[in-house]
Amino acid sequence: MAFLTRDFFESDVLTVAHDLIGVELVWQGCSGIIVDTEAYAVENDLACHTATRPSAREFVKNNEPGTAYVYFNYGMYWLFNLLVKGGERDGLILIRALDPQSGIAEMRQRRQKQKLQELCSGPGKLALALGILGQHHGVPMVGRAKPKGCGLRAPSEPVEVVTDIRVGISQAVDFPWRFLARDNPHVSVKHGRVKLPILKNATTKE
DNA sequence: GGGTTGATGTTC
DNA sequence: AACATCAACCCG
Q1: pLDDT of res. A197
Q2: Rounded to whole angstroms, how far apart are CA atoms A37 and A188?
Q3: C1’ C6 / CA A51, Å
Q4: pLDDT < 70: residue spans in chain A
Q5: Domain that holds residue A93
Q6: CB-based contacts of A80, cutoff 8 Å, min separation 6
Q7: pLDDT at A190
Q8: Distance in angstroms, CA of A190 to C1' of C12?
Q9: Residue A190 located in a structural domain
Q10: A9 φ, ψ to 5°?
Q11: Which of the nucleotides in strand B have any atom less than 7 Å away from a protein CB atom?
Q12: From A67, A111, A153, A174, which residue has the greatest number of CB atoms within 10 Å?
């Protein structure tokens, strides 16, 4: 019933990514239980945006824990993350999949899909389903300042969590920093893909 | 089912 | 140039 507060995000990025599984993401008339997350650490993690993007480091510096970090990827999809700051390890957590709870009709309309499992079973899909856009970059998801109808509702009962390697990255590929609700049909792709060196590129290079 | 590929734009 | 993706398409 209770919404998460700022202190939830003043912890270790791995702890928070784990504990977000089972939390209900409530977003302007729609909601879903978080079933798939990935942790990205500000320090010593080459896959994190802070490793390559000055703008990401600025974001961490200038925002409070629990703030939404939203960015555009592959020219087509918005991805929704939450800022962890002020605890053991700062970082960003990618919300990768939801088990849809409310606002299903609206999600179906936005996604142009009918099957429940196709609404929010991926980070690009869930942003589309909920109507998350670049304009939401920087909105607080905890505290009084959060937008009307938005928040993160604590689980009513504990959820079993399993780990995996992160998906779709080419750096730090073997960190087991993906967290999944065990046996939940709404998770994103089944397992992380380990990118092997492409021989063609290696041999065609001068 | 699984593997492959094209669509698309921002950041550095 | 790379990219924290997706859906359509092939093949079987």
Answers
A1: 36
A2: 10
A3: 26
A4: 1, 191-206
A5: 6-181
A6: A68, A69, A70, A94, A95, A123, A126, A127, A130, A132, A136
A7: 72
A8: 22
A9: no
A10: -100, 5
A11: 7-12
A12: A67
